[in-house]
Amino acid sequence: MINRAIEATVLRSLNFFPVVGILGPRQVGKTTLARKLIGELNKPVVYYDLELVEDFETLSQNTTWVLENNINKTIVIDEVQRLLPLFPQLRALVDRKREAGRFILLGSASPDFLQKSSESLAGRIAYHELMPILKSEAESSFIPQPTHWHRGGFPDALLAPDNGYWYQWQQNFIKTYVEQDLSAMGISTTIPLLNNFLRMISHVHGSLLNYSTLSNSLGMANNTVRRYVEILEQAYLIRRLEPWFVNVSKRIVKSPKIYIRGSGNLHFLSNIRHYEDLITHPIAGASWEGYVIEQIIPLLDPGIRPYFYRTSNGAEMDLILVDGITPVVSIEIKLSLAPALKRGSTESANDLQTEHNFVVTPNGGNIAVRPKWLHCNISELIEHLKTLNMVAQY
After folding, report:
1. Residue after which a domain boundary falls, among 237, 260, 285
2. What is the mean pLDDT of each run of 10 residues along the chain (394 residues)?
3. Are 345 and 316 in contact (CB under 8 A)?
4. Which of 359, 336, 159, 178 is nearest to 264 (CA)?
5. Within a domain: residue 249?
6. How many Å apart are CA 151 and CA 166, to the nearest integer?
7. Which of 85, 162, 182, 323 is most buried, by CB atoms within 10 Å?
8. Contact (CB, 8 A) for 351 and 312
9. Rounded to 5, what percent of the chain is helix, strand, coil?
10. What is the per-residue burial (b if ≥16 Cβ within 10 Å, else e) of 293-322?
11. How large is the greatest C-alpha to C-alpha distance in the chain, in angstroms?
């Protein structure tokens, strides 16, 4: 089993907050993490999985009895978004006996979970987002970067015996999301059209999000496309990276960039079955860019916000990290091993006035390429961000 960096942070919350919520996409390892945490708690635990019919019926039909008769235990409720009316009762029980670590709630693919729990449990719950296994976590289990980049960070897919099993896992994963989760979240269209929608997004991965282009290509209304993109983002499948506006006198690109968050999902949707196919595929550069971004953003301190930067005259930066209203770090992401900088990158750094600028490539080396610019790999970059106090302490 691969150890997750977030474990210590979740345990810390369990020692203070009555309720701890662990959010993340399907199959990311929330249940595995919860079972490991259970073993480290110094109190008895009762576990309910609401995907099991018997557990769902037990909690939905006998809610008060179950909760009150386990008042001295930690109650773990998996897939809690399936029983949203539970939250007001949790609040009443917490207020009756406010004690740390009373409930662990696991939820996926549901904006209603956040809304309902925030309304009912405000001040009583701490949220933690569990994302697919990071490169640093994979390498601690001797999984090399090429494998992790190609397969992505979903545990079962990453640890599959071969690429055939990996591809089959991805196929089942996308099928489940398309046929169950996304339809339950409000995407009411045919399965073939939704599959085409996902594949269309894989084609524009790393590009500016143009709703009209997607709308015209798919024969869908513009507002429908916008709503579907929002749902995919809420389901942790895609990321919209917003642009940073540094100078209102410049003609700044206003559209966000869109990424499929899981590199393995992207490669499956692009029919890339092997790493050797990936490095020669036209999407390789954009895939590497999205992969690097997903290794950085989950580690950031909550006060640090990620953006990209682009102007109409060609100045562009793949990722900038902003503290408050001050851009601090500029990051150019290149699949090429050569750390050469384009004019657009240097112009962007000048516009942003960032003191710390990095070119991230697969191999890196911590090599100074020009004043205030360092060529590094992902691991080296994270160490620099730690030095700058931009990474949350796990």
Report:
1. 285
2. 89 94 92 89 91 94 89 92 88 89 87 74 91 94 96 97 97 90 82 92 96 93 94 92 77 88 97 97 97 96 95 90 96 87 89 95 92 95 96 74
3. yes
4. 159
5. yes
6. 7
7. 182
8. no
9. 45, 20, 35
10. bbbbbbbeeeebbbbbbbbeeebbbbbbbb
11. 67
